[in-house]
Design brief:
The protein is of the alpha/beta class and 387 residues long. The chain folds into three domains: 66 residues, Winged helix-like DNA-binding domain superfamily/Winged helix DNA-binding domain (Arc Repressor Mutant, subunit A, Orthogonal Bundle), CATH 1.10.10.10; 132 residues, Nucleotidyltransferase, domain 5, CATH 3.30.420.40; 154 residues, ATPase, nucleotide binding domain (Nucleotidyltransferase, domain 5). Helix content is 39%, strand content 18%. The chain is built from twelve helices and 13 strands. The strands form three sheets. Strands 6-5-4-7-8 form a five-stranded mixed β-sheet, sandwiched between helices. It has a five-stranded mixed β-sheet with strand order 11-10-9-12-13, sandwiched between helices. Strands 1-3-2 form a three-stranded antiparallel β-sheet. The chain is globular and about 65 Å long. Zinc ion binds next to loops.
């Protein structure tokens, strides 16, 4: 475990923090752009950059495609080797951990099965073992490890506690961050899985350069992550984004939450596969979504219609500029996405519907662990500079 003394600045630490934040959110800014974003003078930015460069936090370079400009601008990046963090995703079936450098590049990933999701204590033992395996692998390769960011499919409050679940589990009231931190001797932060994935897509993926973003995670569970004004929006108690339990069909199937016809009951891949098995009277292979026969097309069109209807409600309420689709259904293809667009045009306010673009996520299955690792990095950088 590494302890770093806080950067003791000749420069105001809040300026250093603003510079770090700006570089984490917008890699490749010029000094002039940094001064604007950090709301300070260019000499002050230069002093902050010198200090960070002395500590190995920065890389400055001219971009290849700008070399033929008369005086190409020097662009500033966080140095990938300066520090790293671990992202850990806990689902009902699997633990997935990845080591990331401070620039957001994955160094390696490991997975392990979950034997009993409801036994929080032994699951956290397994999680700690998996993270240790990853840390051992990179003992020499990374400068130091800032900590572990966890993504879990449960609402998380402002203090990082699991607040409650739509289906009862023993995770409620578990202080996940503290329990894992004690097992590992490292700082741990906790984030809802959809929020974590939203953060990753916003910073590195299909939601880049978007101020207001709705991220939808469509897997066995359905959740949304909201980025409003470049920040995660949690709501008063951490429940914001439980779009999976929006009622779409009041006469639909009963849901685990006690409602009927929730979005989740209409889009869960498990439900869709069950319907396909029934009509085909045969087992359904992985990858059935790309089969393209009439049954699959109908299932995906109907699921897209339900998703589009839910998105239309969110558009009318929040007016996000972009909607990013992640999870298993992100791979569903053009039939699914066309049905989403058609439902939005039908159900949303025309001007907002015209502006909002719905796109598949570009980071795939590692969006949640990247987002969780990134959230941890942001938090620990603040600790490091005493912000
Ligand atoms: Zn429900």
């Amino acid at each position: 475990m590494h302890h770093t003394t806080a950067i003791s600045p000749s420069v105001d630490s809040t300026i250093v923090l603003r510079v770090l934040r700006a570089l984490a959110q917008h890699p490749g800014l010029t000094r002039a752009e940094l001064a604007t974003r950090a709301d300070t003078s260019r000499p002050t930015v230069s002093a902050a950059l010198r200090m960070l460069e002395d500590r190995g936090f920065l890389e400055q370079r001219v971009e290849a495609d700008e070399r033929n400009i008369g005086r190409p601008p020097m662009r500033v990046f966080l140095a990938g080797s300066a520090a790293s963090s671990v992202g850990l995703e806990i689902t009902r079936t699997e633990l997935h951990a990845g080591m990331f450098n401070i620039a957001g590049h994955v160094l390696s990933q490991v997975r392990a099965p979950v034997h009993d999701f409801d036994d929080a204590s032994s699951l956290l033992d397994d999680a700690a073992m998996l993270v240790r395996k990853l840390l051992d692998r990179h003992l020499r390769a990374t400068a130091y490890v800032l900590g572990v960011g966890v993504a879990i499919a449960a609402p998380i409050d402002h203090e990082g506690h699991v607040v409650q679940d739509v289906s009862p589990t023993r995770w409620t009231r578990v202080n996940l961050a503290q329990e894992l931190s004690e097992r590992l001797g490292l700082p741990v932060s906790v984030e809802n899985d959809a929020n974590a994935a939203a953060l990753a897509e916003h910073r590195f993926g299909a939601g880049r350069s978007c101020t207001d973003l709705l991220y939808l995670r469509l897997s066995a569970g359905v959740g949304a992550g909201l980025i409003l004004g470049n920040r995660i929006y949690r709501g008063a108690s951490g429940i914001a984004g439980e779009i999976g339990h929006l009622t779409i069909d009041p006469r639909g199937a009963l849901c685990g939450c006690g409602g009927r016809g929730c979005l989740e009951t209409l889009t869960s891949p498990l439900v869709l596969e069950q319907q396909l098995r029934t009509v085909r009277r045969a087992p359904v292979e992985d990858g059935w979504m790309s089969d393209g026969d009439r049954h699959v097309r109908r299932l995906l069109a109907d699921a897209g219609d339900a998703v589009g209807s839910a998105i239309a409600t969110a558009i009318n309420l929040l007016d996000p500029g972009r909607v990013v689709i992640g999870g298993h259904l992100a791979e569903a293809g053009v039939v699914f996405f066309d049905a989403i667009d058609a439902a939005i045009v039908r159900d949303a306010i025309p001007s907002a519907a015209a502006r909002a673009r719905v796109v598949p996520g570009s980071l795939g299955a590692h969006a949640p662990i990247l987002g969780a690792a990134t959230a941890l990095i942001s938090r620990e950088l603040e600790v490091l500079v005493g912000g």
